[in-house]
Amino acid sequence: MDKITYNEKYYVKSSEVDISQELKPSSLLKILQDLATEGSKIVDAGTDKTLDKGYLWVFSKLDLSINRMPRYQETINLSTYPNEMMHFIYPRTYLFKDLNDNLLIKATSIWCLIDAKTRKVLLPSETGIGVASPIKADPISRIEKKEVELKESRTVKYTDIDLNKHLNNTKYLDYICDLYDSSFFYINHIKKITIAFHNEVKEGETIDIYASSDNSYFLFKVNEKIVFECNIEYK
User: Fold this and answer.
1) Looking at the domain covering 6-127, what would its CATH class be?
2) Do domains 6-127 and 149-234 have the same CATH topology?
3) pLDDT at position 47, please?
4) Rounded Cα distance, 78 and 21, in Å
5) Which of the chain's ends, N or C, has fewer CB atoms near its CB within 10 Å?
6) What pTM was estimated for this model as a whole?
7) How many whole angstroms separate alpha carbon 70 and alpha carbon 12?
8) Contact by Cβ (8 Å): 227, 196
9) What gap in Å lies between CA 203 and CA 97, rounded to an integer?
10) Residue 46: phi, psi to the nearest 5?
């Protein structure tokens, strides 16, 4: 276990929090993304074995439970480890704890490798990348679909895209949070986020953003094609 687990201490910065001094949802996803990058290195699946050879790690699902959001200037302990592989799927677990070892956040994500040119999902036999782990991943919650209405349309800009040349996964939660003003998050503290990425979105494309009346289900479409779904539960 120790050989496949990446650990680090993390200091929460001012640029990562909202006006309540709690970590923003998109900042949380950025930390998960960076943790996955560092975690992949210690299981011999870093950029030298992926990006340098024309393979891209792609985030497809996330199930995240929050006991408490980290706060501004708080130092926390982060850890991540891969889970037992399933065919071409690479699950990964993340733990956020305070310095007293209290669990703040637990998340499970699903990743796969794609060809950078064709965008085709690759099998481990095609890349030579297999991650051995004795730990089964927690099951990912199913997305609960609800009736929705169109809230906003946004065009993807330069600052929204990443090195994979598509809308970065952290931006989806920014788009959702921007549907509300700050007072909404004073009242509604997020306790669970479940995400499903269906299709990538490129620079210049326009996303139609839909939400349910109870603000718990979000649906993104590009040209009537579903690209993203999300459930959010509040305390």
Assistant:
1) alpha beta
2) yes
3) 83
4) 19
5) N
6) 0.91
7) 7
8) no
9) 36
10) -80, -170
Sheet containing strand 103-115, strands side by side: 6-11, 75-82, 90-97, 103-115, 55-66, 190-197, 225-234, 217-222, 206-211, 149-155
Does the pLDDT at position 45 exceed 90?
no
Rounded to whole angstroms, how far apart are CA atoms 81 and 132? 11
Residue found by looking up tokens 């906003």 in the block = 152
Homologous superfamily of the 149-234 domain (CATH): Hotdog Thioesterase (3.10.129.10)
> Shortest CA distance to 32 belongs to which of 80, 68, 71?
80
Q: At what angle do helices 25-41 and 169-177 cross, to 10 degrees?
A: 170
Domain ranges of the chain: 6-127, 149-234
Residues constituting the chain: 235
Instruction: Report percent pLDDT > 90 for the chain.
Output: 68
Closest CA to 202 of 152, 153, 156: 156
Q: Determine the average pLDDT of the residues in 80-99.
A: 93
* Cα–Cα separations (whole angstroms), residue 43 to 46, 112, 122, 196: 8, 15, 18, 25
The H or E element spanning position 172 is helix 169-177
Distance CA 25, CA 17 (A): 9
C-alpha 56/C-alpha 69 separation (Å) is 30
